[in-house]
Design goal:
The complex is a heterodimer of chains A (230) and B (80). Chain A is mainly alpha-helical. Chain A is 74% helix and 4% strand. Chain A contains seven helices and two strands; from the N terminus they run ββααααααα. Chain A starts with 8 loop residues before the first strand and ends with a helix. Chain B is an all-alpha fold and 80 residues long. Chain B has two helices and no strands. Classes of the chains: A mainly alpha (230), B mainly alpha (80). Chain A: It is found in: Cell membrane; Membrane.
């Protein structure tokens, strides 16, 4: 059986080996960018069907982000929304024949989680200032500094492993079922895989949102008593 | 027993015990969420969102065990 941890290169561009997840990622990116451009070109005051759906999705995303961050969702909409849509499309792309979801490989998930990590730092520094954000690491007391530092690493790592493990196990189970009984038997599992993919995309986006919201609001809470103190 | 046989056995043990705890935990979480929704149907949205995030957190433990099992099977450092 093929190891899910190793990716064989499909073809080479010069000295650079190109693997299947890279191709799938670029195709998904192209589809998303082209779709967004098409949607942008046909924006109207009286929306058509496609625009209504797009506005519905954006509104739902905004509501979720507002619930978590407890403030205006505008600064986080682009990142969280793009991550959600990308992970969703990537997870569901496994339903197409011959395509393996790029999120079933560790590298894609690592890149996504790294983006969330950098965005957490960026929004923390942006809303609290550099010193103010550093102070949040000593939040209850200074004893918590090592724990808070470790937490930053482990939660990013668990974000990677969660998405990887869920999507990869779905692909793996379908592969095993296919080798046992080919016709029609894996269909319920594939349906379950679609559900898992949607839930995991939601979870990934919401957790990224929670991390960013915590980085933003912790500073607010840490800053207020100091300002009120004489 | 060779190192390969031990690896296969330990992968099975890791997944089986790793599925046990999260299974019990998820059952309790869903039961508590259903109870809460039955008491307060108007807050079903908030409860189910928190439930999904919590379930994903619990499920991560099982996924960790799965990843350890895969490491043991496919990327075992002791198998030459």
């Amino acid at each position: 059986m093929k190891s899910p941890l190793i990716v064989e290169p499909m073809f080479h561009i010069g000295p650079v080996p190109v693997t299947q997840p890279v191709v799938a990622t670029w195709v998904i990116m192209a589809v998303m960018v082209l779709g967004a451009l098409l949607l942008k070109r046909h924006l109207k005051q009286r929306p058509g069907k496609v625009q209504v759906v797009a506005e519905l999705v954006t509104g739902a995303l905004d509501d979720q982000i507002r619930d978590v961050v407890q403030s205006d969702p505008a600064p986080y909409r682009v990142l969280i929304g793009t991550i959600f849509l990308f992970v969703l499309i990537a997870n569901w792309s496994g339903a197409l024949p011959g395509v393996e979801p790029p999120t079933a490989h560790l590298e894609t998930d690592a890149a996504l989680a790294l983006m969330v990590f950098v965005a957490t730092l960026y929004h923390g520094v942006r809303s609290n200032g550099f010193i103010g954000y550093l102070k949040t690491f000593a939040q209850p007391t200074w004893v918590m500094i090592p724990l808070n530092l470790v937490e930053q690493i482990t939660r990013t790592f668990s974000l990677i492993i969660r998405l990887f493990g869920n999507v990869m196990s779905g692909v793996f189970v379908i592969g095993i079922m296919l080798s046992l009984a080919g016709l029609l038997v894996p269909i319920p599992l594939m349906a379950l895989d679609l559900l898992t993919g949607a839930v995991q995309a939601y979870i990934f986006a919401i957790l990224g949102c929670v991390f960013i919201g915590a980085a933003v609001s912790e500073g607010r809470e840490a800053g207020s008593p100091e300002r009120s103190a004489p | 027993m060779t190192i390969e046989e031990i690896s296969v056995l330990s992968a099975a043990i890791a997944v089986s015990f790793g599925a046990l705890g999260p299974g019990l935990g998820e059952g309790r979480a869903v039961a508590a969420a259903l109870d809460a929704i039955a008491r307060q149907p108007e807050s079903a949205g908030t409860i189910s969102r928190t439930l999904f995030v919590g379930l994903a957190m619990i499920e991560t433990m099982a996924i960790y065990c799965l990843v350890v099992a895969l490491l043991v099977l496919f990327a075992n450092p002791f198998v030459k």
